[in-house]
Amino acid sequence: MNVRRLIRTTATAGAVALSLTAVAACSAGPGSGDGKEDGRLKVTASFYPMQFLAERIGGEHVTVSTLTKPGVEPHDLELKPRQTAQLGEAGYILYLKGLQPAVDKAVEQSGVKHRIDAATLTSTKTTAHNDEGHEGHDHGAEAHGDEAHGADEHDGHDHGGESGTDPHIWLDPVKYAEVAQGVGKSLEKADPQNADAYRKNTAALVTELKQLDASYERALRTTDTRTFITTHTSFGHLAERYGLDQEGISGINPDAEPSPARIKELQTVAEKEKVTTVFFETLASDRTAKTLASDTGLKTDVLDPLEGLTGSSEGADYIEVMESNLTALKKALGAK
Q1: CATH architecture for the domain at 220-333
Q2: pLDDT in tens, 300-319
Q3: Which end of the chain has the least Cβ crowding within 10 Å, N or C?
Q4: H-only helix segments in 28-91
Q5: 1-120 sits in which CATH class?
Q6: Are 57 and 184 in contact (CB under 8 A)?
Q7: CB neighbours of 44 closer than 8 A, spacing ≥ 6?
Q8: Closest to 98 (Cα-Cα) out of 107, 89, 90
Q9: CA 84, CA 112: separation in Å to the nearest integer?
């Protein structure tokens, strides 16, 4: 990841957003044009997992646009003035703080009343390791019930920078369902006249996510190995949920180059843990994954972190791609 570019992007987005605050504040006032388009709530989502939630829960009562277009790696998103203006005109913003620094700053200065950080709706904490070495996994041990998930708890997120946190919460169907419930409630507040529809749509989606969780639980209960290797460690929450051990080639940053020591370590892990497959993803280079696989005699396959859909995605939406991921994991892990 180009750090200088991200810093420059954040500063630019912030400056443009400041100039639009007054406009956004006016548009957020009462009136028939208050964050609406053809009578529907105008929703801006930061990237695909947020877009999917907004579309499924909002249904016919919302118009959804996304800041991260298909094929764009969301971590490296550079906001254009037009996109910052898009934020200021929205009636509702759904984003995930800590994943896209430029978006975080622009959202903060957008002036939009109804803006929801998905990271406040569940816990981003994980005991799954995000880099080198091994840690034990406690399957399902994290409590969700009355745990406070206020905004203050998550304000310090940096993508992989805070020990024990991981922003890829959507890859755990249980955490994603918690986010869906929070999004549903927030849409009810933003658009009360359609609250019944939002409640109904939320319940239907949560049911699907529970079924997806059950499918993963059953399929991955008994396997030949519990370890899988990925391009970067975006599957920490998924691994923790189902008692797996994730080994990332380049850590949590998809653009980082692994050290020779890390490559050697992965070769040792692959042999010891009977790893069969090195996974790569759709929006990042597969060069390192294929090199490692070639050097160790392993196979390669796709494990999609679902940060965005493309024409090569193994499915038309979140549910279908997650089902495809499960198929790939079952094969690689030797599920019984």
Answers
A1: 3-Layer(aba) Sandwich (3.40)
A2: 899 999 999 988 889 999 99
A3: C
A4: 48-58, 81-89
A5: alpha beta
A6: yes
A7: 64, 65, 66, 67, 86, 87, 90, 92, 93, 94
A8: 107
A9: 12
Cα–Cα dist 144/227, whole Å:
26
Mean pLDDT value across residues 149-155: 34
Q: State the Cα angle at 277 between 273 and 280, rounded to 5°.
A: 125
Selection from 16, 15, 26 nearest residue 83 by Cα: 16
Where do the domains of the chain lie?
1-120, 220-333
State the virtual CA torsion across 222, 227, 228, 233 in degrees, nearest 10: 120
- What are the tokens at 122? 């569940």
Give, to the nearest 10 degrees, the angle between helix 3-27 and helix 81-89: 40
pLDDT average, residue stretch 167-193: 98
Share of the chain above pLDDT 90, in %: 56
Residue 222 in this model has a pLDDT that exceeds 50: yes
DSSP string across 99-128 = T-HHHHHHHHTS--S-EEEGGGSS--B--S
Predicted confidence band of residue 173 (pLDDT cuts 50, 70, 90):
very high
Helix (H) or strand (E) segment spanning residue 14: helix 3-27
Mean pLDDT value across residues 292-304: 84
